TrEMBL record:
Species of provenance: Tulasnella calospora MUT 4182
Name recorded for this polypeptide: alpha-amylase
PANTHER family: ALPHA-AMYLASE 1 (PTHR10357:SF215), ALPHA-AMYLASE FAMILY MEMBER (PTHR10357)
UniProt keyword Nucleus present: no
Every Glycosyl hydrolase family 13 catalytic domain range: 1-225
Length: 374
């Protein structure tokens, strides 16, 4: 182990990597990953673990507490997809770890995401800033991240945000962007536990009901993303998302063929009108809000703008009718719609950004190993 010392200064990377996590009540000894014998043992161990148990991927805890140049050989030995947890709000610091592993949880984005939807007075400009800073500091931008809205280390969002529309909007952001969307168990049930350990409630208390508001909402989000991925005219997985329009209280995130539109005005607000000026869609294209109960549709105006009416602060996810699957959410809308442009025309009409990365992050499989080395 490294010699005993507690981390006193998290700006001191040597302390972060070589001192011990914990406190006087529970000190976690820090393994000396500078020792070549220990490194060799770890590399052999992870290779055997993955092979023996057919592990599909790794979720690596406390990544920043191990030197960065340890990870490439370790992950090469593992030979499977890996996501690392770097709990920090700095984009440049967290983004550096995408150079040594497949992807990381986008913690800096999470901090801004929660702030932006904390209440109707919060600043949605934080999300536009997050998109820009992630592109600047992460290898392949947000394509090399995992997007999340809750986890086991932080209080659940409903413990401090009491408006269900704001909670839904937070969830929607994680499905509409570039990062691999993840959910923490219990979000679908509306669990509201505070800080650890109150945020680790037993799931069986729900009786595993699927007839609850958030479960149904998440089902729609998941179906929407699947339809976007299935659109043969689009390259949804590898096309970087762009902020189409934004104000201090609204944002439209464009990732063809999906247009995610959010507000933090909340469910107590009256109907709010907004025009998305840079939708990227051709005039006349019909877009369907697949999150709305009635599958409400809008038509792109002659100048390419999209008129939006927020009802009680509800989030919106728009897809062109040609992207809708007749067997999925809003499927009847796709069948009933007539006169809309073809898929090829819609794709050509969308002014998408050039793909700067050849890396396409695949959907994570079911068998994952979770562990920490620090």
């Amino acid at each position: 182990f490294h010699p005993f010392c507690f981390i006193q200064d998290y700006q001191n990377q040597t302390q972060v990597e070589q001192c011990w996590v914990g406190d006087a009540n529970l000190a976690l000894a820090d393994i000396n990953t500078e020792d070549s014998n220990i490194v060799s043992t770890y590399n052999t161990w992870i290779k055997n673990l993955v092979t023996t148990y057919n592990v599909d991927g790794l979720r690596l805890d406390t990544v920043k507490h191990v030197r960065q140049d340890f990870w490439p050989d370790f992950l090469s030995s593992a030979g499977v997809f890996a996501v690392g947890e770097v709990l920090d709000d700095r984009y440049n610091y967290t983004g550096a770890y995408t150079k040594v592993m497949d992807t990381v949880f986008n913690y800096p984005e999470w901090f801004n995401l929660i702030k932006a939807f904390l209440n109707p007075q919060a600043d949605m400009g934080l999300l536009s800033t997050s998109v820009d800073l992630t592109k600047q500091n992460f290898k392949n931008g947000a394509l090399s991240t995992v997007s999340f809205s809750e986890n086991h280390d932080n209080a659940r969002n409903p413990s401090g945000i009491f408006d269900p529309m704001l909670i839904k909007s937070i969830m929607t952001w994680t499905f509409g962007g570039d990062g691999i969307p993840t959910l923490y168990y219990g979000q679908e049930a509306g669990y509201s536990g505070g800080n650890d350990p109150m945020n680790r409630e037993a799931l069986w208390f729900t009786s595993y009901s699927t007839d609850v508001m958030y479960y149904k909402f998440i089902t729609k989000l998941n179906q929407a993303r699947k339809m976007a991925l299935a659109d043969k005219t689009a390259k949804f997985a590898s096309t970087p998302a762009e902020v189409a329009s934004s104000t201090s209280h609204h944002i439209a995130l464009s990732k063809y063929p999906m247009l995610t539109v959010l507000t933090n005005s909340g469910n107590a607000s009256a109907n709010v009108q907004w025009s998305i000026t840079n939708s990227g869609f051709k005039s006349g294209v019909t877009l369907v809000d697949v999150l709305s109960d009635a599958c409400e549709s809008v038509q792109v105006a002659s100048d390419g703008s999209v008129p939006v009416t927020f009802k009680a602060g509800a989030p919106k996810v728009y897809l062109p009718t040609t992207s809708l699957n007749s067997t999925s959410v809003c499927g009847t809308k796709a069948q009933a719609s007539s006169g809309s442009s073809s898929s090829a025309q819609d794709s050509a009409a969308f002014h998408s950004q050039a793909v700067t990365s050849s890396v396409i992050l695949s959907v994570l499989a079911s068998a994952f190993a979770f562990f920490a080395l620090a």
